[in-house]
């Protein structure tokens, strides 16, 4: 009897501490209650034996557990997803026969629209917020069940969610995991918190014509950030929505249909033509005031396609009779020993003070006055600047193009008057979503781009790229995003078809991330995400000048061995 009783207990290691004794079959939620007091942030999920699990998961044998709190990238997604489900339920209860669409991120929140027989106003938003609070107070359980795909289609038809119905056509498995919150059922790409009671911290902001859901953020130490107007960024998202209408594509299922029926050729050409037209429009805007637009500054987060965009902009400016020159900011790095250090005592090459601002601005002033200036070359092996006789002299109608993470920060070019700068912000602002309620985060598109490019051009495996990504994101939050609204123009480098192309490159790389790797859960998540797309194998329709070529190869602007 004693032996049998002993076997009913298991040993659990939590966050590398323990082991602790628990009854076999204990839920992660029960275990989390013993450790919630040790963290200021809400626990929303856990990594069990290196696999991401919801808190309602039960543990039947000895295990190592790491809890996931809301102030983490994984935790934020779980919290946001769960909150959006409650938002959808509240809207459908208050506005009969309405359709809710989860669109994109804006101002560190989630922009959604409620499509109803009349426009939604600020008073409606207050009503939705109150109803959400009521649902949260009821602490409704998110019930998860596995149901056949045909049954799921019937449910989605009943809710008039045809994007989900069409998506099921490409579902490889004969079942899906459906969530239930009270009377409403829904399908989400990713996990949920156990119940609505976890979602006490949120705000709604009326942002015509839609609503922004605000929630705790990693960058704000678990607080809800103050809402900031981002009219220029929002305009780009709206423009992308119109591009989707031109291309007659709304959700992933429509893209899959094009590929399966081999109608992608025209679609790719139109998507690329829209890009080229926008680049030409920017070149025209710069050319119209070329006497003032002496310095063209291009900035954007990692894997936005800045290099290809800059090359294409130069071509379009040349079409207008203008001959721009480019200067590499890398050549103005301070000598290695003078590089500022980060909080860990490591060289911070992303700091604006890693650039010799005084020397750079002095050279820039002289170049713009028409003087001949010798440019340095930074030797990355020795960590020092060298002068090798590389000289530059320009005419008054020749603009200088500068591309880099600090390009929109006026401190970089402090010696140049603002009226002589034309600032361009570029990012892959994905508008194509999986379905009505499952969006494609811009960061996921850029991360997959980077995984593919790092493998091809830097010999990095996916694990290496995934390990660097959090640091890259912190740098973007600090050095790029605060300045995006100061841009004179924005360029959306996302291509509606790109994930179907990147899929065949990224999947083998992600599968190589070992089960024991700390980055395995993230690799698994991205593989699941790519599974929604039908792979586009043929690449002959993708022009050599496409931004996508910067990542997959055979670019006119990048030397490789394809």
Describe what you observe in this structure.
The protein is of the alpha/beta class and 562 residues long. It has 3 domains: 2-69, Roll (Ubiquitin-like (UB roll)), CATH 3.10.20.30; 74-228, Threonyl-trna Synthetase, Chain A, domain 2 (Threonyl-tRNA Synthetase, Chain A, domain 2, 2-Layer Sandwich); 232-292 and 422-552, no CATH class. Helix content is 37%, strand content 20%. The strands form 6 sheets. Strands 2-1-7-4-5 form a 5-stranded mixed β-sheet, with helices on both faces. The chain has a 5-stranded parallel β-sheet with strand order 16-19-15-20-21, with helices on both faces. It has a 4-stranded antiparallel β-sheet with strand order 8-9-14-13, with helices on both faces. The protein is globular, with a radius of gyration of 26 Å.
Sheet with most strands: 5 strands, mixed
Strand proportion:
15-25%
* Weakly predicted, low-confidence segments: 1-6
Mean of residue pLDDT values: 93
Instruction: Please count the beta strands (DSSP E, at least 2 residues each).
Output: 21
Number of helices: 16
Count of structural domains:
3
End-to-end gap: 69 Å
Which of globular, elongated, flat, extended, rod-shaped describes the shape? globular
Lateral arrangement of strands in the main beta sheet: 2-1-7-4-5
Radius of gyration: 26 Å
Question: What's the helical proportion of residues?
Answer: 25-40%
Look at the helices and sheets and give the structural class: alpha/beta
